[in-house]
Amino acid sequence: MSDIHFGTDGWRARIAEAYTFDNVRRVTQGFADYLKAHDLADKGVVVGYDQRFSSDLFAEAASEVMAANGISVWLTAHNTPTPVISYSAVEREAGGAINITASHNPPADNGYKVRDPHGGAIPPEGLHEIEDRIPETVETVKRMPLADAESKGLVRRWDPNPAYIAHISKLVDLEKLRNAGLKILVEPMWGNGAGWIPTLLSGGNNTIWEIHGGRNPIFPEMKRPEPIRPNIDVALKRTTELGADVLLIFDGDADRMGIGDEHGVYIDQLRAYALLAYYLLEVRGQRGAIVKTISTTTMLNKLGQMYNVPVYETGVGFKYVAPKVLETNALIGGEESGGYAFRGNVPERDGILGNLYFLDFMVQTGKTPAQLVEMLFEKLGQAYYYSRVDTRFPSEKRPQAKARLDAARPTTLAGVPVTGIVTIDGYKYELGDTGFLLIRFSGTEPIIRVYCELTDQSLVQPMLDAGLELAGLK
Question: Would you kindly state where each structural domain of the chain is located, as residue ranges?
């Protein structure tokens, strides 16, 4: 049996290799034992899934193990967005949740996420405990046939959508958005976000189109359901063809979001995060802490200074963000991947609410997405430019690459002085007012990532090249 380890957000592996029914059952037994150890088993658990190959069957397998352990299961009656599953943990007063999804990973992968009673990611120490409790073989895993579990009332299928819709209706004025007169294109990337915007905003005077809204586990017209280019290029082109005012994008499990402007230009995820924070601070007049991962924008630090709110920086992944959001009652928390959590909601990324908030930003200001970016830069006094390069990198080569980066102490990068090095998650080279360069290993895939955000657009490619050279990739 293969070792199972939780990465940045859950366990992910290739279907039929490491990701098998037996391994799903093993990790579920580990989670069941964790729930028992923390007196959460009596509260039951929510189990949901995405549109990937056999996700519904893997969810049933997990439910069988929970039931055999005497833990009641609320099994979603259909594929369900991650934020809805997370909210359901709170609404059902459950001890936690299981989500069968590989999020943005390639089509051949599937995954397994766990959530706590708050609907948030379980912190690293909890994940390590779950890993330690995973049995070495499937022979010791408890299992009850699904039909028996359902007949005994240990597994109940239910529709979680109505409760979630009632909840977010308290956070954003859906009636105002329904009658905004906007032309909206939605890109759910063959995933769990399909149908949500048309359903929530139907009955008004908007024109709403949706592409890639069915179930197709090979994700045609994109490499993977990740809301960045080139995966969204078809949608960006369609935006201009239709004359849409905005493109709203989800990732495969709808916990992340993306925005395309009226010109078919992608608003990168760092700008999107800064825009949402600006919206909450300026348009809504709210105040509270901002939580950001090491890989996301320094625009948030500047907004924090302008509005006199604290900004906290964490490692990459909501297993770090969610606990800090809860600790500080943060206004917003998020990461470079395009996942953002909002106060009043669960401490979890929510692409549905994030996209609705962006529409509300447009409606309340009367501005287009491109104009909102201009307004943000005017507020900040300068523009910010971001880019990222992902390179396949075998796990066995990580120690050598890590040793190389540990030893590196550059004083300049692409001619810009290095003012500090932060190593809480990867290697972040601070470049004063110019920005930053970050090199880190992905926690979900065999990939090394090189990121930068700079106030000088001409430096972006030279800085990425410097990062690739520093990592030994060029």
Answer: 11-160, 165-380, 385-470
CA distance 239 to 78: 29
Strands (E), 188-322: 207-210, 246-250, 257-260, 266-267, 290-293, 311-314
CATH number, domain 385-470: 3.30.310.50
pLDDT (0 to 100) of residue 20: 97
Q: Please give the distance of CA 101 from its chain centroid, rounded to a whole number.
A: 12
Q: Which CATH architecture has domain 165-380?
A: 3-Layer(aba) Sandwich (3.40)
In tens, the pLDDT along 402-458 reads 999 999 999 999 999 999 999 999 999 999 999 999 999 988 788 999 999 999 999
CATH dotted code for 11-160: 3.40.120.10
Model pLDDT, residue 231: 98
> Which residues have a Cβ under 8 Å from the Cβ of 44 and sit 6 or more positions away?
71, 72, 73, 74, 92, 94, 95
Q: Cis bond leading into 230, ω under 30°?
A: yes
| Overall pTM > 0.85 | yes
pLDDT confidence of residue 430? 97
Kind plus residue range of the DSSP H or E element containing 391: strand 385-392
Enumerate residues 6+ apart whose C-beta is below 8 A from 330: 288, 289, 290, 291, 312, 324, 341, 343
In the block, residue with structure tokens 């859906």: 174
What is the residue whose two structure tokens read 């300068």? 382
